[in-house]
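REQUEST FORM: STRUCTURE PREDICTION
Request ID: SP-0412
Submitted by: Lab K.M.
Chain count: 1
Length (residues): 202
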Amino acid sequence: MAVEVEGLDIELLRSEIQRTYAAVSREPDRDFMFPTGRAWAEDLGYPAELLARIPDASCESFAGVANPFSLGPLEPGEDVLDIGCGAGMDSLIAAQMVGPAGSVTGIDMTPEMAAKARRSIDEMGLATLTVVEGSAERLPFSDSSFDVVISNGVIDLIPDKDAVFSEIVRVLRPGGRIQLADVTIQRPVSEEGRRNIDLWAG
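STATUS: Completed
RESULT:
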C-alpha cells in the first residue's frame, strides 16, 4: 500500500537508502543493522553448488533477508527480473538456473551496487545477465517482459508499495510468477516511527 506520512521526505529517504547500501558495497566487513555476506547466504539455504560459483565480491555485499529460491527453482529458458539486485548474488544464482536459453535482468538504484554486480557478471562470463540502474516504482521495461520477478529485502524499503506491485504486474507475462523474500511487520508503526528515516533505511 502507498504510505502517506506527513513529514517523511521521500527524496531524503532514497538518498539515505543509497548511502547505506553504497556502504555495504564499499565496506562489506563493517557491522550493519542487518546480516551480510556468504555465510549468511549459506545459513539461508541457497543451493551450495550454485553459490560456490559466485564471486566473493558479490557474496560479501549480499544483504538479503531470505532465500527467494526456496519458493521453487527457476526453469531453464525463463526470463527473470531481479528488483533491487544489489551486488548481484541473487541475479547470478538465477542466471545459472535459467541457463543460456534464459535471461536475467537486475535493477538497482545504488550505482555502487550495480557496478559491483557488473564486475561479477564479467568475471563469470554471463552474457545472458544484465544490470541497469533504476527505480522499482518506475521499471524501465516493456509490458509482459518477464516470466518471473524475484526480489530480496527491497520492497520493505519503498513507501509506495502500490506502485511497485503495479509495475511488477505490468512487466510480468500472463501466467508469470513472483518470488519475494522480504520483511513484514506484525504491529502498526507509530507516526513518529514512520517519519524515522533510520528505521526505513536499516
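NOTES: The first helix runs from residue 10 to 26.
Reviewed by: T.R.
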